[in-house]
Amino acid sequence: MTKDFVTLFLVARNRGMSRHLKPTLSLRFSLRILTINLCLVIQNNAFSQENLVLDYVVEELRKNNPELQSYRSQERAETANIGTEVYLPPPTFTLGSMGEQNPFSMKMEESIGVTQMIPFPSKAFRKREALKAQAKAARAATSTAGRRLLAESKKTFFDYWRFARTEELLKENLGILREHVKRIRSAPFRNQLMQAHLLSVQSDEDLAQNELYATNQEVETIKATLNALMGRDPSLPLARPIYQNLSQLPVAPSKEKIDQLVASHPNARQRFFEQKSMESSLSASRSDYLPDLMVGYRYNKRHDNTPNNHELMLGITMPFAFPWQVNARVETARHRAEAARHLNSKEIYDLKLQVLKSYSQLTSFHSQLLQLEKKILPQAQKRQHIAHGIAPTDFESLMEHRDALESYVDLKLKHTELRANYEKALVDYQTLFESEEQ
Fold first, then answer.
1. CA-CA-CA-CA dihedral for 394, 398, 404, 406, to nearest 10
2. Inter-residue contact 271 to 347 (CB < 8 Å)
3. Same domain membership, residue 277 and residue 344
4. Whether residue 383 sits in one domain with residue 285
5. pLDDT per residue as tens digits for the range 236-287
6. Residues 273 and 321 in one domain
7. Which residues of the chain fall short of a pLDDT of 50?
């Protein structure tokens, strides 16, 4: 419809331009502004009228989510940081001048020299190993963040579908209540009980309208959250979600699959490399007890009768002479390494527990869904069809009509909530075994 309107607008514009070959500057400017605005409207309308699918949400998150991009940049920074630890620091060059009254008057001697500090070989090696393990931990942290954000976006999508579907069912329930009011007023009998029942139904109608308002607000909040996860402005319009087929229940995880999960999960890898980094830092701290070597050379040029001379210097540090500072660094690194080992063990137990709890919750939701779909909902639907044919001859027939119709809508609301919870539980379970690229 919008495209047809723009086509007519462009045709009218071309025809107008053919009649007026020299339009004014203000007319040209107005036409250009109107064209730009129409293009923006078309773009927004086209997006808002299409159905939103889960694959699109995942694709947009991978490309545009700022938190995920931040983790990737941090990973690259940690990888680049490995090059900051070198085996040899840069040498030091010195220039000197000596005079009688000041360094630059009546020079007696000029000198040039170079010194090089040579750390004990194991120090730089251990520090570099710690930085490499830290970079691997950052890579695992990026993978963990990717999994978490993907799971969050998927679960938000299913919440969006659930509340959008709830809106439709609440409107259906409002229609049932309004139809029931008409039945009450068309009933062939009148008494105080019927008047009280009419007031009760009208009050329930108002409450249902309030519930619909609250659901509408929840939908808008979820839309804003989903937009933000996709790296878009939260206020932008969002299409209605489409989701049809229930995902299949996976098979129960075997012990081998759980062990494979522990070995490959990014949370476990992150803890493992953090432990390796702390252990390498501990080794580097212990290497501080070892001496460093310093070599130097200096050439002295004399301006008196004394001949020029060459100096060769050799020095060695003695950290063991004052060991308390090194002792403190070693003790600190040792406790940090122990903490990292405990966190690594805890992560392994947590992952195994999470798999078992997640699958148990998943099978529970799946069993409840099957019970609803195969038994409870079909029975309620049959009861609804029968209730449609009941004539409002007495108070009991009116109550049965309302109860049958409202019960069916309530069951569909329960089914919608349960289906969304099942899919969200499945996302949590699959996230344990899938990578952030899936």
1. -170
2. yes
3. yes
4. yes
5. 999 999 887 888 888 888 888 888 877 778 888 888 888 888 888 888 888 8
6. yes
7. 1-31, 33-49, 436-438
